[in-house]
Amino acid sequence: MRSLDGIVPGSRAVVHDIEAEDSFTRSLLELGLVPGTEVEVVRRAPLGDPIELVVRGSHFSIRRQEARRILVKAL
Amino acid sequence: MSKPSERIALVGSPNSGKSSLFNRLTGLRQKVANYPGVTVEKRAGTCHLPSGRQVEILDLPGTYSLTPRSPDEALVRDVLEGRQGAAAHADRVVAVVDATRLDRQLYLALQILRTRRPAMLVLNLMDEAEAQGIEIDVPALERLLGIPVLAVSAKTGMGVDRLRQTIDRANGNGNGHAASANGNGAGADGNGHAVEAGNGHAAAADAPWTELDPAHGFREVESIVRQVVRRRPTEKAVRGRLDAVLTHRIFGPLIFVILMATVFQSIYAWATPAMDLLDAGVRALAGLGRATIPAGPIQSLLVNGILAGVGTVASFIPQLAILFFFIAVMEDTGYMARAAFLMDRVMGSVGLPGRAFLPLLSSFACAIPGIMATRTLPSRNDRLATILIAPLMSCSARLPVYALLIGAFIPNRHFGILSLRGLTLLSMYFLGILAALGVAWVARRTVLRGPRTAHVLEMPPYRVPSVRSVFLAIRERCLLFLGQAGSVILAVSIVLWFLASYPGGHPETKALESRAAAAASAGHAGDAAKLRMEASGSALRHSFAGQLGHLIEPAIAPLGFDWKLGVGLLSSIAAREVMVSTMATMNNLDGSADPSESLRQALPRAVNPKTGLPLYTPLIAISLMVFFALALQCMSTVAVAKRETNSWRWPIGMLVMMNVMAWVASLAVYQGGRMLGWG
Hints:
- The complex is a heterodimer of chains A (75) and B (679).
- Chain A has helices at 23-30, 64-67; strands spanning 2-3, 12-18, 38-44, 51-55, 58-62, 70-74.
- Chain A has 75 residues and is of the alpha+beta class.
- With 679 residues, chain B is α/β, with parallel strands linked by helices.
- Chain B is 60% helix and 8% strand.
- In chain B, the strands form 3 sheets. In chain B, strands 2-3-4-1-5-6-8 form a 7-stranded mixed beta sheet, sandwiched between helices.
- The termini of chain B are far apart.
- In chain B, 46% of the residues are buried.
- The model of chain B is unreliable at 173-208 (pLDDT under 50).
- Classes of the chains: A alpha+beta (75), B alpha/beta (679).
- At the A-B interface, α1 and β5 of A face α3, α10, α15 and β12 of B.
- β5 of chain A pairs antiparallel with β12 of chain B, so a sheet runs across the interface.
């Protein structure tokens, strides 16, 4: 188990859990990052932060600090 | 025209093409206002139905869910729950989703179904879905959800007529599909697959309705998508290739810098011909006014008060139009999200999101379009922080003032390739930026406290922008500015005109005027012009504005400013560059031709009548420039901040903060400089 931040760009992972319970957690869940969802890390921004994800066919950018709260299983 | 018989709310995620659909349905019949008490904009328009009936369409802000996290999202929920009152209730809901991304966007549709409001679903961007090999079984989706489902492309217009017919048919009488959202739809689908979210008794079991569990909801979405969507494999290469360049480690920032330079250059320079044209038009009207209306208070009010105000308002339109052209194109193509992606880290160092870059850059040309561009920031705190610091970017109206003072007081010395004058100008820009960083830092820890907004920004697919929506976006912003900020600017212009023109009739002014008239009738045109100039200088010095200058002199004397500069500062409320022509008039110079040139020579020669020493020194000039760099003098900025924050609290707070900051900084420069013996 590791955080989404630790996933190498270009590879995939499956969401396991999101740390901490707050409104931000809910917003991640409502974007479709529910446990069991497959996520692809596409790339990092030129300065290393944020990172680009594909979730359920949509691309999102998320800051690494927030990606650290998403626990995943690497595929 | 009959009144719209009912109101229909469009609800959808950002990038679902909801606004293009709104434009399709309403055309030019749209209005923008603020919802009472919040900063959210209310966009509404009228749609004509085939039966001849009209309905009002409400374009609600884009949202990913009905769980409110921002004022925009809270508003969507309030409207759906009928909490906004009569001002914004909705009789029916049209849920808009991007047909190419049902996997994600159907979730919001399920939440909307849960509200048990009469609803229908629009699968927008159907043309794109077809091009991508995505087939959607619409009748099956209708059966599963129990509401009408329409395949539409707002871009090509496909299916829009059918949408109008469906809205027309489902009118108020509660028949057919619309009513089935109450719960009988899912039961009637015949294949035994009850849709939990749309199902009446399921929703009733765990009220309140909005608490659709995301894990549950997305399982539901997956199940629906499995049943209704067929994908033919196609390559989705365009996006990948574009992103590989536009977010590339080297090319990405490079392209970004070139684009931003283009935007900046265009609002800074390309708007000038249009502004000059408008200015010439206003001057022509003023000339016409002087020629046709007899001289007197009415002529003066119309020409120097109202027309001058109209000219100020109009002069912003070219810049606004150009900036909003670029914003609309960048938003519609999807580039804005990439720009935010690139800049997020940089802007994050002062607690602002990447998207704040463009409004701040625009503010170097003018804070008015800059502040209006903050609308692209989704979070309230980010928007307010950006509005707060936008006026600290040295705008183009400060440039004439800097140019005058630098030309008059800073020696033309060079250090290698660097000129002292250039460095002085540059340091004024840096001063503004540094102050902005400081203010943002402090604001983030005090009035706008809270963690930097968690950002999960969608990076939408690249799309070709439609001429129609770009045009409508520009038109909307310009009309908003004219209607709401324009009225404040006009009112303040009239007040300023009054202060500069009354009480009038001072003996000195009258004597000069009669001498000018005498010289003119004697045929001494040169003397007459000079005396008229002295008369208008005298009139201004003895006006209420002149008296106010004396009144505020004790407050500005510690900064090195005399009462004449005080009058100049007061006049810069109209626009900062007005300072230059006012100073010319105050010093009996011709303020109409090129005031800067004659002032440049006159100012260093001005002598204090009491002490016999120079009235203005290089130190005073620097103190004054620092004041201009930091002070909020511009009424148009205040008016726009009022309109964009929908309250007087923020603009008044900005006025106090920036002017106190400017005063303290100028005080430090002047008194510190004096202590060091610089003047």
